[in-house]
Amino acid sequence: MWLFLVTEIMFFGGLFLAYFIYRQWYPAAFASASNKTNLLIGAFNTTVLICSSLTMALAVHAAAQGKKNLIVLFLILTLLLGGAFLGVKAYEYHDKWVHHEVPGANFECEGCADAGHASLFFSLYFGMTGLHATHMLVGFIILVVLIIQASKGAYTTKWYTPVEMFGLYWHFVDIVWIFLFPLLYLIDRSGAAK
Amino acid sequence: MSQSNRHSVYDDVPAAPHDEHGGDHIVPIRTYVAVFLSLIVLTWVTAFVSTLDLGALNVIVALAIAIFKASLVLLFFMHVKYGTRLTKTVVMGGIYWLLLLLGIVMVDIMTRNWMGVPGR
User: Fold this and answer.
1) Does the structure show a pLDDT above 70 at B60?
2) Which positions in chain A touch B30 (Cβ < 8 Å)?
3) Which CATH number fits domain A2-185: 1.10.3720.10, 1.20.120.80, 3.30.505.10, 3.10.180.10?
């Protein structure tokens, strides 16, 4: 799983690189476009995802102790918290769609400095959070399988490898978001740079 | 199934439940809770600090906090602190790769137009 996660670092790394390059070239566009994201919603969502990481760690902990009901409970909580995160993301996406902030024919960034390059920020926003959300959706499917298997008593103290491996995956997805949040939501929130 | 005449290289390996940890280590829940609370606090700290005008320091502080949070998740939630040296090497390898990618490319990108000659 760690080797797979290293390939995931490469996968996301490319997008992070693109972000840094364009932010370097068009700082004003990135700053004003970033301010279109909602800081409170972003911070809240980050909190939700960190909670889901805690419940996932507790699920692995319960599996190591062979406590079947706790494993199922924590896996379900992880699923619910992850679902809440995606729900909030869907709301954010819809909000952007309604405000014409989705790159394409009808794109417009209201009151944005260097609006011509603002769409670059939003392309990266949707690309990076979309890739992240896709990873979470895959995680959901696996979580459902894990919950079913756990409730059948498949995981014991002698063998709970799937739970542990999925835990690594889920924490990795959390780490990606830990970087996405400041890079996408927290550029120049003081409004000082002009 | 009789295995008396079959020998494999795995015959003498001890059947400990989680060899990949180099020992069966269960992280206490209070460690998880402490890490969790730190992550939450740091999230709101970084959100708040972003509203202050620190100039060029804003990015550095935000990334430093993010790196620290990621380290907490890696070391404790992902058990790397309690892992084998192989695990740690693989993780460091991935991080090193990313630093090379970002570092080398950004050194190029950020130093363009420094020399006042085309392409530099």
Assistant:
1) yes
2) none
3) 1.20.120.80
ipTM of the predicted structure? 0.91
CB contact under 8 A, A171 and B73: yes
CA angle B22, A166, A65 (to 5 degrees): 55
Q: In Å, how far is A57's CA from the nearest CA of chain B?
A: 6
Residues 6+ apart with CB under 8 A from A113: A28, A29, A31, A32, A194
Q: How far apart are CA A55 and CA A79, in angstroms?
A: 9
- pLDDT (tens digit per residue) in B101-112: 999 999 999 988
CB contact under 8 A, B32 and A57: yes
pTM for the full predicted model: 0.88
State how far the Cα of B3 lies from the Cα of A114, in Å rounded to an integer. 73
Range A34-39 average pLDDT: 92
Contact criterion met (CB < 8 Å) for B69 and A189: no
